[in-house]
C-alpha cells in the first residue's frame, strides 16, 4: 500500500482527493458523508454574505450516449448564514480531525471584510483558506469571484489583505476566463499566496431549446451564462495547471481542478504539477462513492510501479511540457495499421483522405479478395488523426521512424539561420 | 479405437471472452446505480457496479479484488452462474435497453487476475486458533479463504485428488475449464491454508481427532453419487452415472466409446444437461433426455435447456425407464413407460403417474443416470450430526449443527427447492459460516 497522503503548502491530507467548493460541500451532513466515503478533504461551499439563488440551476451536456460529458451551473455561493456554516464546519472538523477542511471565501473588495471572515473561519480550526476568485456567474456581476480573478492587481491586493491576518495556508482559486492564467497566478504569488487552485468554471451557454427557443437552463424565460465543468473541460484545466507549474514566476503548489473523474485523470494532474486534486462533477453524477476506485486505482498504479508515495509523482512530467519553438522538427512518427485487429470501418481512410494528408489507401488484395488499409509512410505527416478516429484501441499505432538528423527545434533553426547558416544544435 | 482429434476441441470453452474493447464499451454502459439491484440479486453480494467501474477506469486489479473479496470462487461463478436469473436479470437496463453483460465482465476481470498472477489477498495476523474444513469445494474454499484472512490456521480435508469440488470435477470443461477452479484453489492455498487431498474422514482421519485438534470443524462435503434407478438391468455395462461421466472428461483422456452411439440420459436437471451435452461432444450420434414430467417442471436453467437443444440433444417428456435391456452384458435397449401428470406433490410439482400398459422399447447403447445426487449419510452419521433425510440441521444464521463445535455449509445443508444449490449459494454459505465460526470462537475467548 503506497502512502497516499499529501502535503500541499503545509496542508496535510490523508489522500489527494478533495471535494471542490460546490454543491457537494454545502453542508456538514454532506461533507461528513464524503469523509466517510473516503475523500481526503473538502473545500466548503464558498462563504460570504448569504445570497438568494434562482431555481433551475444546472444543465448537463450529453455526448454520444454518455451523460454529463459537460455540466454547467448558475448556483451562487452559500445561501446559509455564516454562523450556521461555521457551526457545521466546526462539528465536521471535530468528527474528522485528520481530514482536510478548507474554507472557501468570497467577500467584497474591502480589507476589513477579508480580515473579519478570515478570523472567523480560522477560529473554528480550518486547515486552510481558499479565496474564490473564480466564480464566473452572478457574483462576478457584483464585483467578486472572477471579476477579481480577471485583474492581477485586485488579486494581489486581496491576497495581501488576507495574508495580513491569516494563520493557515492561503490557496487562491483562479478563473480560466482569462487570456493567460499565468499572469493572475503570478499576482497571487506576488501577494503572498501559499498555493493556487485551478480551474474554476468556464463561461458557457449549455444549449438552446429547439421548441421553446429558450436558453438551457432558463429561469422564467431568461437565461444567463453559467460555469462550465465536467470531463469536457479537463484538457483546458490540465494545460493551465501545467503552464503554471512550469512558470518560473508562479512557483506555488497547485491544487488541480477541472473534469477529474477518476484516478487516471488525477494521475495526469499530479504528473503535470498538481499536488492534489479537487473533484465536483463526477461526484454530482455518481455520488461520493466514486472515491473508492480513485483511491484503489491510484494505490494500485503506484504499487505496480514500486512508487512508495504519491508525492513522488507530483510534477514529474512538468519538464516535458514546453513551448512549440522547442519541439524537435526532425522527430518523425508515422501511422501503422495492425491488420489483425482492423475491422475495416475505413474511418482512417476517409479522415485522412478528406481532412488530412491523403496517405491511407484502400487496397484490394487479389489473393484473398479482401480490402486492406495501407499507409503510404512516405506521405504520412504523423498527425495522429487516423489513430484518433480508429474505433479499436491499439489498431493504429504511431511508430517512431529513426531520424538520421540530429534534433533541431524551430528556435534553434532560427538562431542558426540568424547566426550565419550552420545548423548546429 | 483412437480418439478423433476434434473431440478435444469440443471440450474447449464455448462462450468466448469479451475482447478488450468490448469489455470497456460494456463497462462504460453500466449506469453505476446506487444501491443497485444487481448486488441484491447476487447471493454473495458482489459490489457489481464498483467492479465494472474499475474495468472502465483500467483498474483491473481492483476490479478482480472487488469480485473475489465477496466471492472466493468468483472466477468460476463468472462462468457458471445463471446470470439471467440473478444479477443480469435484476439489471435496471432490462427495462430501458439490454442488461449489462455482468457475467462476462466478471470473467474479464478475473481472467486478467489469472493471466497476471495477481496476488489479491493477504492472510491475517495469526489468531492462534485452528479450524478444520471437510470438503474443498466452493463452500469449503470460500470459508477457508475468509478464515485465513481472519488469521485462522485452516486445514482442509478433501477426498478427491484435487480440490475445487464441483467446479473442478462436476461442471463440463466447455463451460468451466478446470484451470479456473484450480486457480481459485491456489488463491486459498496462498493464504497458508493446508489442503490434504485423497483424505477421507473415518478412513484416513477420525472425527475424534478433528474434534480434539481443532477449535471448530466445518462440514462442507457437498453431494455424493447419483442414486440408483431401482430398475432391472442397471448393472449392465453402458449404464453410467452422470457425475462420473462428466468427471472422466475432466480427469482422463477423452474416450471414443460413445462415437456414433445412441445415448439416453435420465433426468432433466443441470447435471442431466451436462451429461447430455458431454455425450454429444464425445461423438454420440443421438442423445435423448428422458424426463418423467414436462418441460415446465424441468429443474435445469433455461439457458442450459437452450444450450442442449443447440447441441442437438433431443428431449422426450412424460416417460420413465422401467428396464434396461442387455446383450452379452452390455446395454442394448431401454424399456420406458409413458407418464401423465397427476396431483401436485409436497413441493407443488405435479406428480407423474404411469399410464398402464404404455411400455415401449427403444434401442440404445448407453443409459446415463442424472436423477439427483445422494447425500453423504455415512459421513453425517459418523460425525453424529442431526439431519433430516441427509440434510444437516443447522441453526438459522449461524450454520451451527447439533454439535456446537461443528458447522455446516453448502450442499450438505441445502434443503432443496426448484433447482440444485448454485455454486454461488455454496460460496455464500461458506463465507457466512466462516464469519459465524469467527464470532463463536471470538466470543468463547477469555476477555
UniProtKB/TrEMBL annotation, chain A:
Q: Which organism is it from?
A: Brevibacillus parabrevis
- Swiss-Prot/TrEMBL catalytic activity: 5,6-dihydrouracil + NAD(+) = uracil + NADH + H(+); 5,6-dihydrothymine + NAD(+) = thymine + NADH + H(+); (S)-dihydroorotate + fumarate = orotate + succinate
Which GO CC annotations does the UniProt entry carry? cytoplasm
Provide the alphabetized UniProt keywords.
Answer: Flavoprotein, FMN, Iron, Iron-sulfur, Metal-binding, Oxidoreductase
Q: Which InterPro entries match?
A: 4Fe4S_Fe-S-bd, 4Fe4S_Fe_S_CS, Aldolase_TIM, Dihydroorotate_DH_cat
**Names of the cofactor(s):** FMN
Q: What is its EC number?
A: 1.3.1.1, 1.3.98.1
For this protein, the record's SUPFAM superfamilies field holds: 4Fe-4S ferredoxins (SSF54862), FMN-linked oxidoreductases (SSF51395)
Q: Does Plastid appear among the keywords?
A: no
* Sequence similarity: Belongs to the dihydroorotate dehydrogenase family. Type 1 subfamily. Belongs to the dihydropyrimidine dehydrogenase family.
Its lineage opens with: Bacteria, Bacillati, Bacillota, Bacilli, Bacillales
Family annotation (Pfam families)? DHO_dh, Fer4_21
State its role.
Involved in pyrimidine base degradation. Catalyzes physiologically the reduction of uracil to 5,6-dihydrouracil (DHU) by using NADH as a specific cosubstrate. It also catalyzes the reverse reaction and the reduction of thymine to 5,6-dihydrothymine (DHT).
Which part of the chain is the 4Fe-4S ferredoxin-type domain? 333-365, 371-401
MF GO annotations: dihydroorotate dehydrogenase (fumarate) activity; dihydropyrimidine dehydrogenase (NAD+) activity; iron-sulfur cluster binding; metal ion binding
Taxonomically, the superkingdom here is: Bacteria
Coiled coil where?
none
Name this polypeptide is given: Dihydrothymine dehydrogenase
Assembly behavior = Heterotetramer of 2 PreA and 2 PreT subunits. Homodimer.
* Pathway(s) this gene product operates in, as recorded in its UniProt entry: Pyrimidine metabolism; UMP biosynthesis via de novo pathway
TrEMBL record, chain B:
Query: InterPro entries attached here?
Result: 4Fe4S_Fe-S-bd, DPD_II, FAD/NAD-bd_sf, FAD/NAD-binding_dom, Helical_ferredxn
SUPFAM superfamilies named among the record's database cross-references: alpha-helical ferredoxin (SSF46548), Nucleotide-binding domain (SSF51971)
| 4Fe-4S ferredoxin-type domain span | 20-51
Q: Which domain of life is it from?
A: Bacteria
Any one Gene Ontology molecular-function term assigned to this protein's record: oxidoreductase activity
What is this protein's record name? Answer: Oxidoreductase
Source organism per entry reads Brevibacillus parabrevis
Q: What high-level taxonomic lineage is stated for the organism? A: Bacteria, Bacillati, Bacillota, Bacilli, Bacillales
Amino acid at each position: 500500500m503506497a502512502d497516499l497522503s499529501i502535503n500541499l503548502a503545509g496542508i496535510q491530507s490523508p489522500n489527494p482527493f478533495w471535494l471542490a467548493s460546490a454543491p457537494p460541500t454545502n453542508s456538514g451532513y454532506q461533507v461528513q458523508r464524503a469523509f466517510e466515503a473516503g475523500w481526503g478533504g473538502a473545500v466548503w461551499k464558498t462563504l460570504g454574505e448569504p445570497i438568494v439563488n434562482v431555481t433551475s440551476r444546472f444543465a448537463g451536456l450529453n455526448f454520444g450516449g454518455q451523460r454529463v460529458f459537460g455540466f454547467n451551473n448558475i448556483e451562487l455561493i452559500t445561501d446559509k448564514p455564516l454562523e450556521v456554516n461555521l457551526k457545521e464546519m466546526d462539528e465536521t472538523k471535530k468528527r474528522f480531525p485528520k481530514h482536510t477542511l478548507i474554507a472557501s471565501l468570497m467577500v467584497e473588495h474591502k480589507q476589513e471584510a477579508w480580515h473579519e471572515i478570515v478570523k472567523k473561519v480560522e477560529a473554528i480550526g480550518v486547515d486552510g483558506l481558499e479565496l474564490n476568485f473564480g466564480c464566473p456567474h452572478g457574483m462576478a456581476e457584483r464585483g467578486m469571484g472572477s471579476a477579481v480573478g480577471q485583474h492581477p492587481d485586485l488579486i494581489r491586493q486581496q491576497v495581501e489583505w488576507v495574508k495580513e491576518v491569516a494563520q493557515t495556508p492561503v490557496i487562491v482559486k483562479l478563473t480560466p476566463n482569462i487570456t493567460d492564467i499565468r499572469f493572475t497566478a503570478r499576482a497571487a504569488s506576488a501577494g503572498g499566496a501559499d498555493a493556487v487552485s485551478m480551474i474554476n468554471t468556464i463561461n458557457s451557454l449549455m444549449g438552446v431549446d429547439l421548441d421553446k427557443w429558450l436558453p438551457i437552463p432558463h429561469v422564467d424565460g431568461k437565461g444567463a451564462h453559467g460555469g462550465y465543468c465536467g470531463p469536457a473541460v479537463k484538457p483546458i484545466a490540465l494545460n493551465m495547471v501545467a503552464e503554471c507549474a512550469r512558470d518560473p514566476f508562479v512557483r506555488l503548489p497547485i491544487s488541480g481542478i477541472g473534469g477529474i473523474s477518476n484516478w487516471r485523470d488525477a494521475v495526469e494532474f499530479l504528473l503535470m504539477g498538481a499536488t492534489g486534486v479537487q473533484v465536483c462533477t463526477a461526484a454530482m453524477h455518481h455520488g461520493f462513492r466514486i472515491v473508492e476506485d480513485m483511491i484503489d486505482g491510484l494505490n494500485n498504479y503506484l504499487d505496480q510501479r514500486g512508487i512508495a508515495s504519491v508525492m513522488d509523482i507530483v510534477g514529474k512530467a512538468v519538464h516535458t511540457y514546453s513551448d512549440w519553438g522547442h519541439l524537435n522538427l526532425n522527430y518523425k512518427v508515422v501511422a501503422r495499421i495492425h491488420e489483425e485487429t482492423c475491422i475495416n470501418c475505413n474511418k482512417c481512410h476517409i479522415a485522412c483522405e478528406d481532412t488530412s494528408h491523403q496517405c491511407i489507401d484502400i487496397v484490394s488484395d487479389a489473393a484473398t479478395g479482401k480490402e486492406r488499409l495501407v499507409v503510404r509512410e512516405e506521405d504520412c505527416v504523423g498527425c495522429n488523426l487516423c489513430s484518433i478516429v480508429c474505433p479499436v484501441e491499439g489498431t493504429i499505432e504511431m511508430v517512431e521512424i529513426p531520424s538520421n538528423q540530429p534534433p533541431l527545434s524551430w528556435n534553434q533553426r532560427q538562431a542558426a539561420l540568424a547566426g550565419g547558416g550552420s545548423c548546429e544544435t | 479405437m483412437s480418439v478423433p482429434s476434434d473431440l478435444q476441441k469440443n471440450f474447449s470453452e464455448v462462450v468466448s471472452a469479451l475482447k478488450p474493447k468490448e469489455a470497456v464499451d460494456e463497462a462504460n454502459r453500466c449506469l453505476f446505480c446506487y444501491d443497485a439491484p444487481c448486488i441484491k440479486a447476487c447471493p454473495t453480494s458482489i459490489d457489481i457496479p464498483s467492479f465494472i467501474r474499475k474495468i472502465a477506469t483500467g483498474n483491473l486489479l481492483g476490479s478482480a479484488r472487488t469480485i473475489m473479496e465477496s466471492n472466493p470462487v468468483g472466477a468460476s461463478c463468472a462462468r457458471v452462474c445463471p446470470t439471467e436469473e440473478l444479477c443480469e436479470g435484476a439489471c435496471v437496463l432490462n427495462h430501458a435497453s439490454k442488461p449489462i453483460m455482468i457475467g462476462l465482465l466478471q470473467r474479464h476481470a478475473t481472467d486478467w487476475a489469472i493471466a497476471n498472477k495477481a496476488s489479491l489477498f493477504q492472510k491475517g495476523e495469526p489468531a492462534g486458533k485452528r479450524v478444520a474444513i471437510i470438503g474443498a469445494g466452493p463452500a469449503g474454499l470460500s470459508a477457508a479463504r475468509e478464515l485465513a484472512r481472519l488469521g485462522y490456521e485452516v486445514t482442509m480435508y478433501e477426498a478427491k485428488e484435487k480440490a475445487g469440488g464441483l467446479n473442478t470435477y462436476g461442471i463440463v470443461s466447455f463451460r468451466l475449464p478446470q484451470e479456473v477452479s484450480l486457480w481459485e484453489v491456489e488463491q486459498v492455498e496462498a493464504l497458508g491454508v493446508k489442503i490434504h487431498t485423497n483424505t477421507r474422514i473415518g478412513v484416513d482421519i477420525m472425527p475424534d481427532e478433528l474434534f480434539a485438534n481443532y477449535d471448530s470443524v466445518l462440514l462442507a462435503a457437498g453431494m455424493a453419487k447419483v442414486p440408483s434407478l431401482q430398475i432391472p438391468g442397471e448393472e449392465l455395462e453402458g449404464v453410467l452415472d452422470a457425475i462420473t461421466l462428466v468427471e472422466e472428461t475432466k480427469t482422463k483422456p477423452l474416450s471414443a466409446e460413445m462415437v456414433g452411439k445412441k445415448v439416453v440420459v435420465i433426468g432433466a436437471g443441470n447435471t442431466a444437461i451436462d451429461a447430455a451435452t458431454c455425450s454429444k461432444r464425445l461423438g454420440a450420434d443421438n442423445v435423448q433426455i428422458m424426463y418423467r414430467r414436462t418441460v415446465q417442471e424441468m429443474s435445469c436453467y433455461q439457458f442450459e435447456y437452450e444450450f442442449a437443444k443447440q447441441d442437438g440433444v433431443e428431449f422426450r417428456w412424460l416417460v420413465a425407464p422401467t428396464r434396461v435391456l442387455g446383450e452379452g452384458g452390455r446395454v442394448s435397449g431401454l424399456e420406458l413407460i409413458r407418464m401423465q401428470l397427476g396431483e401436485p406433490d409436497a413441493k407443488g410439482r405435479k406428480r407423474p403417474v404411469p399410464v398402464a400398459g404404455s411400455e415401449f422399447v427403444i434401442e440404445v447403447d448407453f443409459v446415463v443416470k442424472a436423477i439427483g445426487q445422494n447425500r453423504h449419510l455415512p459421513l453425517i452419521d459418523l460425525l453424529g450430526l442431526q439431519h433430516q433425510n441427509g440434510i444437516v440441521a443447522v441453526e438459522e444464521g449461524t450454520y451451527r449443527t447439533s454439535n456446537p463445535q461443528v458447522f455446516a455449509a453448502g450442499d450438505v445443508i441445502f434443503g432443496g427447492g426448484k433447482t440444485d444449490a448454485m455454486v454461488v449459494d455454496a460460496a455464500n454459505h461458506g463465507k457466512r459460516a466462516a464469519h459465524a465460526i469467527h464470532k463463536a470462537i471470538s466470543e468463547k475467548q477469555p476477555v
